Amino acid sequence: MVMDNQSWYLDLNHEQWAALPVDGQRPPARYKHAATVLGEKLYVMGGSRNGRYLSDIQVFDLKNLMWSSIKLNVEANDDKSTDGAKLGAFPATSGHSMIVWNGKLLLLAGLTKESGDTVAVRFIDLESYTCGVVETFGNIPVARSGQSVTQFGSKIIMFGGEDRHRHLLNDVHVLDLETKTWSAVETTQTPPSPRFDHAAALHADRYLFIFGGCSHSVFYNDLHVLDLETMEWSKPQLQGDVVAPRAGHAGVAVDGNWYIVGGGDNKSGALETIVINMSKLAVSVVTSVKGRDPLASEGISIASASLGSESVLITYGGYNGKYHNEVFALRVKPRDYLQPKILQSPAAAAAAASVTTAYALAKPELLNFSEKEDLNSKIIPVDTSQKDISAEINSLKEEKKALELSLAEITADNSAIKTKIEEINGNHAELSKELQSVQGQLVQERSRCANLEAQIAELQKVLESLPSLEEEVQALRMEKSALESDMEHAEVQKQRSGGIWKWVAG
User: Fold this and answer.
1) Per-residue pLDDT at 493
2) Would you say the C-alpha torsion 219, 223, 227, 232 has a positive or negative sign?
3) Could you give the 3-state DSSP secondary structure of residue 73?
4) By CB count within 10 A, which of 112, 191, 264, 425 is most buried?
5) Cα–Cα distance between 369 and 387 in angstroms, integer?
6) With 0-12 CB in 10 A as exposed, 13-18 as middle and 19+ as buried, what is 464?
7) What is the rounded CA–CA span in Å between residue 38 and residue 188?
8) What is the spatial distance between Cα 436 and Cα 441, in angstroms, rounded to a whole number?
9) What b/e sequence results for 44-75 when a residue is b if at least 16 CB atoms lie within 10 Å of its CB, and e otherwise?
10) CA-to-CA dists, residue 106 to 41, 86, 132, 301, 505, angstroms
11) 389, exposed or middle or buried, with CB in 10 Å at 0-12, 13-18, 19+?
12) By the 8 A CB rule, do 198 and 247 touch?
């Protein structure tokens, strides 16, 4: 690949990842950062490395394949910042989301060293290189990380994540970018189980797709769809290749095809880059990499760039036992783009089936004569008067409503039970770790107690031998006393006799 060729992407093979040669110094490796493309530049902000949050903003020029960094100025009237922005730098952040709005970068949620209780929204003005806090109103959601943020028109829809206390979430909030007002959304049917580090995408300006993610103990490969007109959840089955559960993956939709790369399950990275045809609800593997490849990383980012007439996917960063800072590109293969499929929710599908049945009962004349004969030969004749049919339809509708209510209650109970089970499993895992630690301490204490007991036994033996020692000491004392008495007696005798020299002199 020629470095100064601005059409380098034409040298790429379709739907094969290629590492891009980079001129100059690469930014520090990281994961759980935020990245997006604006024009012909890839903007990367923040992330985490070795447990430390990052605050830098890096720019990758897709024309000359060079990195550069941006130094920001904080707005002078930004007196609401409490986490370091006043010091002249964007706050170090990890696990956040980033979108483009009116030529500015908006960053939502994520973790900082001094995170508040609610979701923060910040902006970066790429013309003036200023940053600041966007004041929002309404029902502001609780602070979190690992959420998904998806833009549709002038609104942002946020789903799930994990709050500062590691509580898992599956709530839905919408931010109106025009009024800067948050609102909580009430949904129907069964929502996805609480999760974080999932992927989300918008289809046909109506459907929010949620794929994968994890709880504290379970990794998912399920697909959930939220109809943004009816706010009903559904869980369609994907056709095609089997996809391994994953979290920390990244996805981007191009012409109704949702490309997903990276992720993992804390044991190994996901090797396959997959594409989900959002109209057909079919999944297929685009390409695969070997283990420990940077593309098989958690916390990786992906963005789509329009270069000439080509759509090119750009990935950066990630972690799979090693932090990465490589840039990879994939040239999207033109695919047949189908008309967006209208995805019926369970309630809508049931209602449609009910209407079809009622219509068939109420309009027997629509069947031709041969069909009538065939049906009459197979069923028992019944009174099909309009009055009876209407009564039967009303009865079926009432039964249907009762069944739907029962189903909704059972589904809600099941969801609550699953949540409790996940919490219990999480608590069990933590308690198991504590038990292992206590058992290790107990083994050490038992060893120490055994040593003490051995020392005590030796001391007891010494104590038991003390009486005999005392008797020996007493006997020695008596011997000493007798010896001293004999010596005194001998001295007296010596003095009386005058000694040997006196005797010799005489």
Assistant:
1) 65
2) negative
3) strand
4) 264
5) 24
6) exposed
7) 36
8) 9
9) bbbbbbeeebbbbbbbbebeebebeeeebebb
10) 16, 18, 10, 16, 128
11) middle
12) yes
Average pLDDT for residues 38-51, to the nearest whole number? Answer: 95
Higher-confidence residue: 31 or 388? 31
Check whether 369 has a pLDDT greater than 60. no
From CA 323, how far away is CA 33, in angstroms rounded?
A: 12
pLDDT value at residue 479: 85
3-state class (DSSP) for residue 393: helix
Global pTM value: 0.68
Tally the residues of the chain. Answer: 506
Question: Which amino acid is residue 15, in one-letter code?
Answer: E
Alpha-carbon separation of residue 406 from 193, 224, 297, 414, 473 (angstroms): 20, 22, 43, 12, 95
Angstrom distance (rounded) from CA 195 to CA 146 = 9
CA distance 187 to 234: 11
Distance, in Å, from the CA atom of 282 to the CA atom of 479, rounded to the nearest integer, reads 108
**HEC-encoded secondary structure of 223-273:** EEEEECCCCEEECCCCEECCCCCCEEEEEEEECCEEEEEEEECCCCECCEE
Q: What is the number of alpha carbons within 13 Å of residue 174 lying toward its C-beta?
A: 15
Tell me which architecture the domain covering 8-331 has in CATH: 6 Propeller (2.120)
HEC assignment per residue over 425-439: HHHHHHHHHHHHHHH
- Measured CA to CA, the distance from residue 475 to residue 472 in angstroms comes to 5
pLDDT at residue number 385: 46
Which has the closest alpha carbon to 22: 54, 56, 68, 57? 68
Helix, coil or strand: residue 198 = coil
Two tokens, residue 30: 């990281």
What are the structure tokens assigned to 97, written together? 């989301």
Residue at token pair 């459907």:
207
Q: What is the pLDDT of residue 503?
A: 36
Token readout for 406 is: 């029962």
